[in-house]
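I hope you will forgive my troubling you with a question about protein structure. Could you please explain, in whatever detail you think fit, how the structure tokens follow from the sequence? Thank you for your consideration; the sequence and its tokens are set out here.
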Amino acid sequence: MAVKMCCMRKSSKSGLLFRSEDIKIIIQEDLCPDQSFKSHMLEGKSSFNLLFLLSDGINLEAHDCGSQFSFKKNQYILHYSPEESIAELWTENQEILKYLQIQINYQYVFNLINPDLNRENAEILENMTHNNFIFLHKETPPDMTVEMHMIVKEILGYTKKGIMQKLFIEAKIIKLLILIFEQFNEKNILESTPKTPEMIRKFIDENYHRNIKAEEIGKYMGMNQSIIRKEFKAQYHTTIAHYISELRMLKARKLITDKEIMIKEIAIECGYEYLQNFTRAFKKKFGVSPESLRNNK
């Protein structure tokens, strides 16, 4: 059995949730935080191990390399083990120890990714075998996303057996791998484009007169829109929407003095499809309507 318990069995909930020729899933949950408890996790030869840390303050010591790690709740690692190895996990200060281990045979992942197909696939497998999916930034393990939480919950709650369970588990593992690759790919994009906020601003400066949104900017730059918003706000201390609005109002203020240009035309020139939206934004910014400001000039 992959998990050995060092306190009374009735005090912990530990067991094999699923096992096939290629995949093994084990849940560990210590229900006796007042007792001394350590868990020994076995990593099989030539296997990838997805470890989801579901309680806080978990310490892990890898016996094969003597390394020790400390995890926060809801972090995870994807680790490749070329040889059979044992890792010891424990918590301090009487904290509950809970984690989920998904062990996948190397050959299964190899067939799934098919590195011979193209260079991208080969790079993914190479990153996996070189354990590049352990730390997201420096020595900080990645945090589980909301989708990862949902998948883990679905795996823990699934009750069917047989082929249905096998297909279900394999589908969920594939989805987890996709989410991990996406999470690390977003990190790599940010690291390779240190001037991302400047690029976003340049795009906005050239296109604010159109009805642009973060989604369009994300597609243009090939980045997730949430990353777009986060990076821009971190650099300029304002949101994309507010920055666009400021540019439009500055332009509107300049154009409003030219009485030969209809206010409706100014609205369109500043990126507003509907006049009422332009009027509302103008009044909110300057305290008066466009007509009132024009008439007072």
